[in-house]
Amino acid sequence: MGSGYAALDGAYQFVFTALLVILAILFLVCLIRAVRGPRMADRIVAVNMMGTMVMVALAVLAVLLQEGYLVDICLIYAMISFLAVIILTKVYIGVYMERKNREG
What is the C-alpha to C-alpha distance for residues 27 and 41, in angstroms, rounded to an integer? Predict the structure, then answer.
């Protein structure tokens, strides 16, 4: 019975490690989208998605390493990421409205 749990733990560790590798690859894809564009809205969505992937990676690490404090860090990061996206959107809308007023 003990060996069954060890095999299950090994399977979970493999799945979580594979998930972290996939998240790292997707993070790089989002980083490319955030840098290349083509519009500011695409960049903001890419930054928001990168923040979400970091939160998922932190949650997976919390389970994999069995460290409860990582969940707290994940929650704090979620709040900071949300505020960052709101600020970026607010700045983008301000720049857009200023440009629109100049042209019109």
Answer: 18
Q: Full-prediction pTM beyond 0.85?
A: no
Contact 58, 20 (CB under 8 A): no
pLDDT string in tens for the chain (104-residue length): 345 688 888 899 999 999 999 999 999 999 999 999 899 889 999 999 999 999 999 999 999 999 999 999 999 999 999 999 999 999 999 998 999 999 87
Report the amino acid identity of residue 31.
L
What radius of gyration, in Å, describes the C-alpha atoms of the chain?
19
CA 75 – CA 57 distance, rounded (Å): 12
**DSSP secondary-structure letter at 19?**
H
Decide: residue 5, CB within 10 A, 0-12 exposed, 13-18 middle, 19+ buried.
exposed
Could you give the residue ranges of the DSSP H alpha helices within the chain? 2-36, 40-65, 69-103
